[in-house]
Design goal:
Layout lengths: L1 H25 L18 H8 L5 E5 L7 H21 L3 E5 L8 H13 L5 E7 L2 E7 L2 E6 L2 E6 L9 H10 L1 H11 L6 E6 L11 H7 L3 E6 L11 E5 L7 H12 L3 E5 L3 E2 L10 E5 L5 H7 L1 E3 L2 E5 L2 E11 L2 E15 L1 E2 L11 E4 L4 E3 L5 E8 L4 E5 L2 E3 L19 E8 L26 E6 L21 E2 L4 E2 L2 H13 L19 H38 L2
Parallel strand pairs: 1-2, 7-8, 7-9, 9-10, 10-24
Antiparallel strand pairs: 1-5, 3-4, 5-6, 11-12, 12-22, 13-19, 14-21, 15-16, 16-18, 17-20, 20-23, 23-24, 25-26
Length: 556
């Protein structure tokens, strides 16, 4: 009997020791099971690779802390959950801290801290709330500063489309947390930079007009400028053709075609119509199409940029001189339907949850048959669009026209396409240009990607007439509104060159499941009573049943 007792004790001790050892060692095993429907806690393989290859401490300081409403508290908690997932793969190389910007000894110190965050690239956001029937305002900084090896970069974590509701925009921000944080890590020089090149030699945008986008792209890529007939393109991961105005030679077109056949990636930003605001004379100007001699190349790849100009109800604003008031010029700000605010996007990771892209004199795009090529529209006009076939008159007197929605009878016309697959060469059934050897000619490409945008102005920065400084691409100085032009271009090139699929994290989908507020108000008391009374009733019922069961059992 004593032997049996010791055997039971030893068995129990062995099982207990096994459970303790399993729990102690499990923390060293990166076993993660995401049971959510949207896999909201699962990070991409590309992010894991980036974190696992850190060789120094990456420090993240998040400034979304303190007295927040439920929506921003949810965003704050989602940021912390993502950073915890980062620590699983980055280990001790990941450190983070949440800081409340309001925790300052006095108002002067708090304002100084606010200014320091703003100067580092984290703009303040005013949070409006309603507490006990009173409207309150609070300044918050929904962003973070990431530091690595004496370098730091700001990361904005409140993103999304401003036309969406506040809750939808917060949800879009939560969907993009992983990508925004990982993009910040990449900007610090972690990971190898890809090589991209801007093509010139056909009257493309000059370096001054590309100043802002070049500076921003340099944080992610090694940026160069090349002439097609003088450079081997094979060393570049992607090339950008930015608003050419002169025809491509046959040799240049052949070099571009063969680069794509070898698996090269390309971003075409093409103005099909000759027009800009400065060229519109008194009485109007006729708009004509460009002959760039690459239309057949794009046609072979699966798209055709139409010979038209689009007008849209979501119009940008231009400043127009309308005479003098006394001795001062009178400048009016009027909607100009050829300047379009594009904020209708597909669900592709390149454009998902973006805000607005500002375009000028944009054309529509149609698709044509191209075997083995997947065509994905990225950007559309609004529901109220007008199409003017070129040649056509463009006149400033159109500013006086009533923008009657009935006249804008087109809807959601695509102006940007992503093409993916195996492309057929333009020269598959013909000889290359004279003087070019056919020895290495390819008739079909490796799997590759091409993006075509029917406007080159979205990549061109303008200049402040007073200071002479370049105006950032992501800001409209007339409306004083933030834009997504730069975000779109960076995302597009990241997608073209990203072999590991880091940008795929932008495709994360988190479904909102809001409560029915009216039903909550109507049934609030019922559910409160139900949730309090039911558990108590079950306990009492269990006690009564147990009492009678014991009485019946021991009465024998």
């Amino acid at each position: 009997m004593k032997y049996k007792k010791w055997e039971d004790i030893l068995t129990f001790s062995a099982v207990l020791l096994f459970i303790i050892l399993v729990n102690v060692n499990l923390k060293f095993i990166p076993l993660r099971i995401d049971l959510t429907e949207e896999k909201r806690f699962t990070i991409s393989d590309a992010t894991k690779d980036l974190l696992e290859n850190l060789d120094d401490v990456l420090y993240v300081e998040v400034y979304l802390e303190g007295d927040l409403n439920s929506g921003f508290r949810r965003l704050r908690n989602s940021i912390e959950e993502t950073l915890e997932e980062f620590r699983v793969y980055g280990g001790d190389h990941i450190e983070y801290k949440f800081v409340n910007p309001d925790e300052a000894p006095n108002a002067t110190a708090r304002n100084r801290f606010y200014q320091s965050l703003t100067s580092k690239g984290l703009p303040a956001t005013t949070l409006y709330d309603n507490i006990d029937g009173k409207r309150t305002e609070k300044v918050i900084f929904p962003g973070a500063i990431i530091s690595y090896r004496n370098r730091e970069t700001p990361v904005l974590l409140l993103k999304g489309n401003k036309t969406a509701s506040a809750q939808e925009r917060l949800n879009q921000s939560i969907e993009g947390i992983e990508y925004e944080l990982t993009s910040g890590v990449r900007k610090l020089g972690i990971g190898n930079k890809k090589n991209i090149a801007f093509v010139y030699g056909h009257n493309e945008l000059n370096p001054n007009q590309l100043q802002d986008i070049t500076t921003s792209l340099s944080e992610y890529f090694v940026v160069d400028r090349v002439q097609l007939d003088k450079t081997k393109l094979d060393i570049y991961d992607a090339v950008v053709v930015a608003q050419p105005k002169a025809a491509f030679s046959e040799v240049d077109k052949y070099q571009l075609d063969q680069y794509i056949m070898k698996g090269g990636k390309a971003l075409f930003m093409i103005d099909k119509v000759q027009m800009n605001l400065d060229s519109i004379a008194t009485g109007g100007t006729y708009a004509f199409g460009y002959d760039l001699n690459i239309e057949d190349l794009l046609f072979r790849y699966g798209v055709r940029i139409n010979m038209d100009l689009l007008q849209d109800q979501r119009a940008g604003i231009i400043e127009v001189y309308t005479g003098n008031v006394g001795d001062q010029p009178n400048i009016e700000r009027l909607p100009w339907p050829y300047y379009i605010y594009l904020n209708t996007f597909s669900e592709h990771p390149i454009v998902k949850n973006m805000d607005v892209v500002y375009s000028k004199f944009v054309s529509s795009i149609d698709t044509v048959t191209a075997r083995n090529v997947l065509k994905t529209p990225l950007i559309f006009t609004s529901k109220y669009t007008k199409e003017k076939v070129v040649p056509t008159m463009v006149d400033l007197n159109e500013l006086k026209a009533d923008m009657n929605p009935a006249a804008y009878n087109k809807s959601n016309l695509p102006v940007a396409y992503l093409l993916e697959g195996k492309f057929r060469s333009l020269y598959a059934t013909s000889f290359p240009p004279r003087g070019i050897s056919t020895d290495n000619k390819l008739n079909e490409s490796q799997p590759t990607k091409v993006i075509v945008v029917a406007d080159g102005d979205i990549i061109a920065n303008e200049f402040d007439p007073q200071s002479g400084q370049a105006i950032p691409l992501d800001y409209d100085p007339i409306r004083k509104q933030e834009l997504s032009n730069k975000e779109f271009l960076i995302n597009a090139l990241n997608y073209l060159t990203d072999e590991n699929g880091l940008i795929a994290s932008r495709g994360k989908q988190i479904t909102m499941r809001p409560l029915d507020k009216f039903r909550v108000d109507e049934e609030k008391v019922y559910w409160q009573i139900f949730n309090i009374a039911l558990p108590i009733s079950l306990v009492i019922l269990f006690g009564v049943i147990r009492f009678y069961w014991r009485k019946k059992t021991y009465a024998k």
